[in-house]
Fold:
Amino acid sequence: MQISVVIPFLNEEESLAELISWIERTMNENNFSYEIILVDDGSTDSSWQIVEQLQQKNNAIKAIKFRRNYGKSAAMNVAFHASKGDVVITMDADMQDDPDEIPALYKMITEDGFDLVSGWKKKRYDPLSKTIPTKIFNGVTRCISKIPLHDFNCGLKAYRSDVVKSIEVYNEMHRYIPVIAKWAGFKKIGEKVVQHRKRKYGKTKFGGMARFFNGFLDLLTIFFVSRFAKKPMHFFGVMGLISFIGGFLVTCYLISFKVYHIINNLPLNRNVTDQPLFYIALVATIIGVQLFLAGFIGEMISRNASERNTYGITKKLGIDE
Structure:
């Protein structure tokens, strides 16, 4: 099978039939073998009934229904593992992503050799209250991840099958799939300018400033886990040593200062324990010890984790499975 189209949705009863019809037309015009995987993320309208009707007309349509709303990341993760296509295309169900972009995205994966291609909605039809935070979000993510993409959160993306099979998407991590993919070893990441259509039905399900703050916290989580999940001592231990050494040096300075004054019979204005610097040194030393112990405990937990020696092996030669 050439293409799996993954579409998570929530209360999109007005757009589903039109979107699926458009995707089917695009696939047939290009003679693609395909499947459409729809994931109902706890809809409360008649979306699921519409999906059932559509599936009866086209057995290329597959559907998964969640008991309640788990979020877009959970929906995509389930669909990724259920996909059978050589190339996986994701898009939103609100008709703002254009299915006519699918052939070009497919070509960039199969012919141009990209692992992942992200859409860039260069011209957007969103209010400033959404576009300005989005630009800030993309700028910070680009700076931290070193991935030169303009629109990390674009729903229209294409992946080689082994990319989606090798990563796990949870919480709200769908915004950072290019980052997750890069840190999993898939570094050929491309970008394509895609059309952003005005919303035809309903209203956005992902509004509000809270998602941007949560997004930055998720980015920090991905950064920390990808770098230090299997070597926590490299983070906590280094921070602990810096704090401990800093506190120790300040303590040595205070003691040397007092000894110097005693040897030379110089007056002391106040005792060492009366100086704020002494308590700063004491706190730094204690925090350093605690951070070092946190790293040590993390290492012990990591050594007993079943996934510690799980790596992204792509090929084997002369090794029996």
In short: Confidence is low (pLDDT under 50) at residues 313-321. The domain at 3-227 is CATH 3.90.550.10 (Spore Coat Polysaccharide Biosynthesis Protein SpsA; Chain A). Residues 167 and 181 are 7 Å apart (CA to CA).
